[in-house]
Fold these 4 entries.
Entry 1:
Amino acid sequence: MKAMVLGAPGRRLELEARADPTPSAGEIVVRVEACAVCRTDLHVVDGELPGPRLPLVPGHEIVGIVTVVGAGVDSIQPGQRVGIPWLGHTCGCCTYCRSGDENLCDQPLFTGYTRDGGFATHVAADARFAFPLEGFADPIAAAPLLCAGLIGWRCLCKAGTGRRVGLYGFGAAAHILAQVCRWQGREVYAFTSPGDVAAQAHARSLGVGWAGGSDEAPPDLLDAAIIFAPVGALVPRALAAVRKGGRVVCGGIHMSDIPAFPYRILWEERQVLSVANLTRSDAVEFLAIAPRAGVRTTTTVYPLERANEALADLRGGRIQGAAVLVPSV
């Protein structure tokens, strides 16, 4: 197999040849067809998330074909197309796992962070955290659903049922979630980096009713706002944009510090929530909803060997939708 490997935080990924993975009990081996590039991958590569398992193969929005199943695996068969997300293993016995909050597990493993991920031609995965994708014919289009879609869906569930939803940071997650919101009959307000007219035009092309800079106030008070950009200063701006009793949901794993803000914009029962990881139930729900909602992902494709270029383009804000790595065969 081939893999793009992170040797130390802040360094470029290096292409390596490795022995093909062998599944342990309860695992599968997948031949990677596509792996989308997430902003969390940037945080891992840039050293903003502590304690990655090095050397590391990043990548956690994986679509591929099962080639080998390990002992004890009977729910997945060789030849099946599956998706592998960020949450790659949970202990199953801590307080959180036992209460249905496995996304908060005390001893988790994360794909592309504390276990090797999908910036490779092959990957081993816990079979319990691999999801059949029989209804998804295009692996490139499906790859962004495995994190951008899943975490966006969990954020939307936390945001509540309000009609007016603001999305701060119109990248991979927001461009998927905007389509789901429109399918649900909601009004969507897209907030981009100030002056990013291309991202605003992309938002409007997906049916978003209003698009503007994150430094602008929306024309109407929002019922909820979801922040995907890793910018802490957006929290008070979003609070000022939501109505009384409104919610602001922070969807990123990493965010810069939130600055001090006046209590009056939190008062009147406004709430600030964070979303951590995802559960398998989130994946099952969203992967059933995405086809019904007619979600279409916007992707820019890179060969696996150009993973560093994909990361640089994402870091520089040059990607509309999602970047996707495709191994050459």
Note: The two ends are 11 Å apart (CA to CA).
Entry 2:
Amino acid sequence: MNQTILKNMIAEWLEEFALPTLIPRDAAPVPADLRNLSEILSIVGPRRAGKTFVMYQMIAGLMEEGFAGRDDILFLDFEDYRLRDFVPEDVETLFSTFRQLTGKDPAWLFFDEIHQMPAWSRVIRSLHNRGRYRIVISGSNARLLLPDIATELRGRYRDHLILPFSFKETLKWNGISWTERTFYTAAKGDLLRIFDSFLKTGGFPEVLKKDLPGERRQLLQNYYQTIFYRDIVERYNIRAKSLMEGMMTCCLHQFASLFSLSAFEKGLKSQHRQGSKRTLANYLAYLQEAFFILGADKFSYSPRQRVMNPKKIYLMDQGFIALMEDFSENKGRILENVVAVELYRRRQTFNYYSNRRECDFIVRDVDSMNLQAIQVCWTLTTGNRERELRGLLAAMQKLSISQGLILTYDEEEILPAAPGQRITVMPVWKWLLE
């Protein structure tokens, strides 16, 4: 690695780089927590969700609180084309160059998109073992959330999930404040107006900056292509690009629906195309690792049964729905997708229930391990009320669940239930603000 390139990049950070104007993220760690950081902190989430800006927010907070100066911090973006030849052996040159320019070692390391560096986990573990640095890394691969990464880093690691803006953050972006009393005043109309936009536009920060639907769609198309080529095809060396593209398109169209690998494989055979079930399973996993989709297994206490059944898939951001040319709007599916992403944001484990009757979500509370059943529909009508209730009640009875929730666009009531059970109907937008 050319030392002059490293010197230029460090000098740019120290002398020229101006932290951008930031919309504070609700999920960002606060400076007081960072000051005593003893673990490797990993900021993980989809591409363009705002991970880099969260790191900037953290850096700004450290400097404003007087915990660090600019020359105490080394920030590098490993997606910068100038670092394409950076290898682990260049780390010592990096620190030598920083000392040359500042006269001291950095106290803070902020490494953006760290997974672009070869053998990154070994490098970060070695740096952490020195005990000199507080280390924050980021990555746009869901594998960084897996337990084996924490094991590989000897347990000295914790992750922090950053997704596209939540509904709360979207309200903040639009300058709208609220309290519980707002729900019962005319100002509720502002909440619903932003919620309607949120359902169509999604929460990617740069997309929210665009005023015209065409501009938003073009930006989302760019994100879609970048995920496909850089985060999947290049990262996993995919040769069957058309097959991968077909699966990604299928997931786009089947959001909030079951995705059967067997059915997809049969469809390929009918078209005289190759694609084994193992390959398709790997491709589906790549889409999840790239944060394009979420996958929910069928609820079962048997791990084998969970794997044997089709997954229910959701888009990581509902804005991608705008990319479908032939989509006939199903508002209920969009609501369900929003709920799935919020459950994931809250780091809650969820499955779907299917056993003659269907329930959209069985949610496991992390602390108490209690289960909650959630059904999602746009509105309760005479035509669907019985079906929605039957699915919810079947899951509650089978799994001994006491709390049932029906989330709709804007309805609220308590429904009669069996002794020891409670069914609440609540607007999705209000649930998102809890």
Note: The first strand starts at residue 40 and ends at 44.
Entry 3:
Amino acid sequence: MTHRRAANSSHAPSCGAVRAAALLTVALVVAAAGAAGRAGAEDAQPAALDAPYRAPYLPTDDAVDLQDVPSRRDPGVMEMLRSRKALESSPRDLSAALRLADAYIDFGREVGDAHYAGYAEAVIAPWVGSSQPPAGALLRQATILQYRHEFAPARALLRRTLGLDRGNAQAWLDLATLDMVQGDYAAAGRDCVEVSAGAGVEWGVACSASLRSYRGQARQSLALLDQIESGAEYRVAGGPAGYRIWTLGLGAEAAERIGAWSIAEDHYRRALALKPEDNFLLVGYADFLLDRGRPREVLTLLGAHSQSDTAFLRLALAKAALHDPDASRYAWIMAARFEALRQRGSDFFGREQARFALELQHDPATALELARQNWTQQREPWDTRLLLAAALAAERPRAAAEALAFVQTNHLEDPVIGGLAEELRTRIESSAAVLP
């Protein structure tokens, strides 16, 4: 297998600055926020706060920094430039196109910017659109669709990839990840077996260990991940650092499932020591800190990563928790970002939108509708947690009945989810007892 990525991985590395003297027009964003403010629970769009800005911003001089962009010295940027040059010199070379697409996809995941997925899609479009698309191009297109949460077409392309290349371990790993995201754990188990057959025991065991953390076996999951991670640096070919980052991230999540907070934090810190700019890890660790009542540390952790929408939401949550004077401005900017995404037709931030509505706008009805819509597509623990929390806040415990059954059937371990589920079941039983 020539290319293998960890299934769950994700800004701003050392950056240069864009400097300009021209007018920075935020009128469109202000209008977008106003449109979001008019939306109600009927269309499940979070309403924006009143805009703190009333006019376009005009920099006072040419030295004002308007936006940070990745430096050309960033390793990911350098890889994109090298791959772009190679493809330009051989535009019909599929291998060169796949390398460039991979560079875009990997960098987009790292910085949490979906634009790079679009760049990758443009690179492989001639091969994907051909009469006989190669397996490599189909696999990258499936990855892009999965990133956008277009799960059904992504699944179809993964199946087509495997029809052409049955032993493609990356396709099996992506399919296993997709099955776990959507809560089809039986299918994920079969996929993990295929991962092991195609990529080696380390990858297959890590896949299975990840699956165990969703099925009430988080302690076994953590033990397996710690065991394989300890020797992974020397045993795994084709990217040991990436493998270690992946297993450490999975271990952090498994430790959180059983309330092993110090172990979880150790895993996050070790993973970030290997890849300090990884958006996925940064956001996961920020959520951990917010749950532990440590919002000030979130500001330090994510202060240089505000261009990522997922990171910016955690900054807004931390500001609110601290009652920071900037909290309302951050909430407004987050609402404007969501509206801009909606106008572009992007609907793959359902989890973040539901959390924004629940925790920052204090609108449980809208949060519940958004969380229910999101849960039909993805059923990771955080998706389940938000649906339970929104149902409880909206005083509609029966709206979470399907999620409660899912938690019970799969023995999902999580201290927060467990508490929410117990409270919802108590309320459902109490309401049933008073019925005639």
Note: The CA atoms of residues 350 and 373 lie 8 Å apart.
Entry 4:
Amino acid sequence: MRSAHSSSLTLARIAACTVVAVALLSACGAKDNAQAGPGAGAKMPPPQVGVITTKFQPVALETELPARVEAIRTAQVRARVNGVVLKRLFTEGSMVKQGQSLFQIDPDPYQAQLNAAQATLGRAQANLTSTAATVERYKPLVEAQAVSKQEFTNAVAAQKQAEADVNSAKAQVRIAKINYDYANVYAPISGRIGRALVTEGALVSSTEATQMALIQQTGNVYLNITQSAAELQRLRKNAGGKGTGSSVPVTVVLDDGTVLPQKGKLLFSDITVDQTSGQVTLRAEAANPDNALLPGQYVRVRLAQAELPAGILVPQQAVTRGGPNGDTLMVIGPDNKPVPRTVKIGSQNGENWVVTDGLKEGERVMVDGFQKLQMLPPGTPVQPVAWTPAATPEAAPAAPANAGAPAAKPNAAGAQAAAGTAAGSGNTRQ
């Protein structure tokens, strides 16, 4: 049998363990209450999202098209006489002026031809002097019948033949002088000259018109633009047949997305469609003071070819393009719940998309705050606030204007988060 003293010790130990356990549970509960705070049971405020209020306004339908740069004036420097190149008188890649000497072709053969022509001219002039003196001497003699009329007639004919010989010799001198001058090759226009296409000692030919260099004026350049005829008709149809014509501003975009500060202008649009490609050619002119555009370079241009009487501008970051349901955005309903909406994009206008269908005037479109929706259950109300574009020194390059091309989807996650709530009520059309 256990002693009474042993039983008392066991009960005491059990009581002590019980007290310790209760104390630990109390401490854990106090810690949880301290972390939760006094307002743990209060409801979290709705997240703020940036919105814009839609409105109709006349907008220009912009499109982005490929183009090739072409120098506004080009001159091919070619040989006009035969000979061996003795000197190159310019620096490759430099600016040259009209009339500047570029190459020196061996002039000795042409100097000799010029000397021979001048000698022939002197002989013809001497013969003319002799025949003219004979005619003057025969005039009084034929009147006195001391000389026959036939002899006088022959003297007059000889004088006229001598005059013709003089004129022919003068022409030969002129030709020889031109050829001699052609031995010194001059710049036909002012501009930037490329590399020399011939070297000293090369034999050039006037028959083959050997090209020696190329001069291009690039202070202003042409932009040869190609556009699908079907796309041009679609733009004009969207604008109700109101085209903008020529002289519209043209924005130049380089391959890396850099937008040039100086704008060009559209000169004309061809009226003939290429039968092989189905495209129409347009030409624009742009200033190129710093030679950022090089002849033959591929660029893209943005221009407005039509004007929409009434359209809605939406920032590009608000639209999810190329999704399963087409182009979509988030509309904040009267209950402040975001609802996905399928819209129709007409074209691009700067940093905005032109929405032609799917929105009404006065609706609120969500522009930012899409990340906040990912952590909320579908259908959660939000607090809309007016959205202000971020002021950046250099705007990011705009997305291509092709309506069917996929673009960046910064709001794809937010759109998917709310899509389950309003999938059946979000396809409102105008």
Note: The CA atoms of residues 108 and 180 lie 8 Å apart.
